[in-house]
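Q: What does the predicted 3D structure of Major facilitator family transporter look like?
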Amino acid sequence: MTITNNIITYLLAAILIIPLRFLSSPEPKAARKPGNEWHELHHGLRGAPVLAGILFLSLADTLSSAAHNVGFPIISKLLTPDDQ
């Protein structure tokens, strides 16, 4: 039953998302100089402070998760070293 619900949900989402591609035609891309991505990101996020906050929060979460995954085994090894 769960698999059937998942299939129906994914198909419904696909049916609703596919028309969004054709609502507007893509704009021609202007030639960009290399290394301009950071400027464009900064400029884009200034107009969307909530999105910038969400991205910063996810960055902090990613770094803290990585610190736990790497740090806990090291601290555990230091606190309880093997006597072998």
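A (community wiki): The structure tokens above were generated from the sequence. The radius of gyration is 23 Å. Residues 3 and 9 are 10 Å apart (CA to CA).
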